[in-house]
Amino acid sequence: MDSSASTAFSGEDVHATHRDGVAVISLDRSPVNALRTQTWAELSEALADTVAAKPHAIVLRSAQPKIFCAGLDLKERLSEPAAIETRQRLVTATLANYAACPVPVIAAVSGPVVGGGCSLVAQCDIRVATSAASFALAEIDVGRAGGARHLMRHLDQGTIRWMALTGRRLGAEQALLRGLITFLVDDADVDALDIAHCIASKDRTAVELVKRSLDVVENLRVSEGYQVEQHASELLMLRSQLNREAEAAASELTR
Fold first, then answer.
1. What is the CATH number of domain 6-200?
2. pLDDT tens, 207-223?
3. Start-to-end C-alpha separation, the chain
4. Would you tell me the crossing angle of helices 204-217 and 222-253 to the nearest 10 degrees?
C-alpha cells in the first residue's frame, strides 16, 4: 500500500494509515493473521483512531501474502472462564464497531478467510475479493461454534448451515453468486482503494448520512425504510439550501 500515507495506528498485529480521505487498516500478524485477544483489541483501537482522523472511507485488508485471516488463534489457550468471557465481549464489541462505523468500510480479500475473519468481512459495507479467496466457518472442526449469524446478512440459510456443519470452504465464485462477495477482481487492494477514493470524492456529510440510513433500513419493511431514506434526503436538501442562503448573505456583506 502507499508508503507516503500518514500513520493512524500502529500495533503488533494491526496497523493503519491515512491519506487523501482514505484510511487503510491492515491485519499484519505473521504468518496467517490468527486472531488472538490482542488482535481483536488492536482491530478495535485501529478503527477508533482511524475514524478520529476523519476519513471518507476505510479499506480493511491483509498485509500477509496469500491469506486474509486464519481465524481464532488456537495457540492462545484461555482456561479461565473470566478470560474467555472477556475475549468474547471484546470480539462482539469489535464486530459491532465495524458494522456501525460512521464511514463506509471496504474489505479487500486476496486469500482464505476462516472463522472470525468471516464475521469481520461480513461487517464491511462492500467486499471485493480475488479468485484466491475462500470462506470457511471451521469452528466445527475444533469442536466449537460461532460466526454464522454475521454471514446471514449476505448468505442464504442453506449455504450457512452447510458451512457451519461441514467446515468446508466456500470458493470465491460461489461467494460471488451468493452475495458474500460484492465484486470478484484481479487485485483486491487496488479495486478496494479505487472504490474508497470514489466514495472520498463525494460529499462527506452525504456519505455518512446515506450509510447511516442504509444501516437503519436493512431490517425494516420497505415502506418504513423508504421513509428513513426520504428523511435523510430532506436533511441533505435543507443543508444545501441553508448553505446557499449563507453564501448569498456573505456575498451581500462584501459588496
1. 3.90.226.10
2. 999 999 999 998 888 88
3. 49
4. 160
